[in-house]
Design goal:
alpha+beta, about 190 residues
Length: about 190
Amino acid sequence: MINLYIYELDNMKEVELPDNLSLHCNKYTLEHSRLVSRYAYSLLVKILENANYNPKLITFTNDGKPVHPHISFSISHSKNYIAIAISEKSVGVDVEGIFLDERLKMAQKILTLEELDVFNHKLDQNGYLTEKWTLKEAYAKFLGTGLIQKVLQTTVEGISINVKGAVVSVYPKDTLKMYYENREIY
């Protein structure tokens, strides 16, 4: 089972973090990105503590992927949202605002030929492209590889949810328990 937590950024505030997480978040050069990352990790800390996992055990791989020895998790943040996925098995999550029309030109670079054919016949190309992008990002986080060409040229089946103008995608497909602002909704 995957526990998926979705938060809006309008409640964001400066937070204290354990040193292991603070050092990672402070690598962001843009102040807003640093604040969002710190806030996202503070939410993760609360989730882990509520589940009796010690957040001080989080370390980072050479590629920057956060890992915990007893639980798998993935974090993503976009302009308006933070998404955190937690599972006993490897998991990946991504959240993005629905792509605007100028991003549609990315379709040929990130969709397989079959996906591109579907895309060309969709009325909501923006939503479709955003869904495919976030699924591939979630899959890359699941693999721990980053978004490489091999991932882009893979059709990924996971779970995607529209949330107020954004898409949250989780990989792999599994039973999902979803929380929005800490309230269980699914």
